[in-house]
Amino acid sequence: MIPVSDYYVVASILFAIGAAGFLTRKNLLVMFMSVELMLNAANLVLLAASSTHDLGRGSAFALVSVAVAAAEVGVGLAIIIAMFRLKASVDADEMTNLQG
Amino acid sequence: MDSIIDPALLTRIAFYLFAGMAVVSAIFVVAHRNPIVCAVALVTAFLAVAGLYLTLGATFLTAVQILVYAGAIMVLFLFVIMLLNLESDPFEKPHVARLVGGVLAVALMFGLVSILGGTETTGQTIRDGSTEEVGKIFFGEYIFPFEMASLLLLVAMIGAIVIARRQEGEPASLIGQPGAGAEAASTAGTAGNDGPIGSSNRPEDA
């Protein structure tokens, strides 16, 4: 068997890459993709941790997490489309209506 | 049946293959300028993570990952990229912001690896991640979370339709009118700036 900590290391690297993308990119869609990467890393940790205890229950948790991610993608992409209608751009730095 | 090659070794090779694939395609997602290339790299990353699930023995989650992430979610992403007709983005953040973001992410990685990399748990799973076991769990003790997840998906679907819906009088096509967005933003500002949902009562919409 592969040690569980190896999965943790891979998930940590994936999470950090996603965080780097979220922090350094300006395109809203690519920032959103980075968030998806981070969610996937979290799911991987969930499954790896449950593999030494109860993989069935861990799979159930991860499936709920996948459902939440799917709902989040639907609403998030709808918001990006609405922002594009308003601004004709997906540049995160142009979303300054709240003086951010 | 005795195999010539040790199955444990095969699992190990698969693990390193999928892990490397996931990391490389994740770097492509965050580093490439063209959003379509980012989306395709994201498909590869999702498939690699599905492979990692398979090496863990979570067969049901492998299928779900491929169907939901690599299938449904990626189609949604590609659909939006095509709808918005995005070119590869010429704008990038200033150098300082990229540097700070990169340093923070590297620090995060080292922190996570040092915390999680040392932990070692041993033991045998009492239930495997097959479809049968997950089905028994979901339609047994976890029936309420299951129904909540379905309700969440229904609400998210309605919400997405309401948010992305075309307002009355707005052009059917999103592309081709680069000035339309700025004009709509300025009129929304004078009319109280009540957001995209409540802004359908703009005077020129009638």
Task: Describe what you observe in this structure.
The complex is a heterodimer of chains A (100) and B (206). Chain A has 100 residues and is an all-alpha fold. Chain A has a domain at 27-91. Chain A contains three helices and no strands. Chain A is elongated, with a radius of gyration of 17 Å. With 206 residues, chain B is an all-alpha fold. Chain B has helices at 7-31, 35-56, 59-84, 95-116, 131-138, 143-164, 178-190, 195-198. In chain B, helix 1 packs antiparallel against helix 2 (35-56) and helix 2 packs antiparallel against helix 3 (59-84). Chain B is globular. The N and C termini of chain B lie far apart (76 Å). The model of chain B is unreliable at 178-206 (pLDDT under 50).
Write a concise synopsis of the structure shown.
With 100 residues, chain A is mainly alpha-helical.
Low-confidence stretches of chain B: 178-206
List the total number of helices of chain A.
3
Largest sheet of chain A: none
The ordered string of helix (H) and strand (E) elements of chain A is HHH
Question: Topology of this protein?
Answer:
The complex is a heterodimer of chains A (100) and B (206).
Chain A: H1 4-24, H2 28-50, H3 55-87
Chain B: H1 7-31, H2 35-56, H3 59-84, H4 95-116, H5 131-138, H6 143-164, H7 178-190, H8 195-198
Helix pairs in contact in B: 1-2, 2-3
Tags for this entry?
heterodimer, A: 100 residues, mainly alpha, elongated, B: 206 residues, 8 helices, disordered C terminus
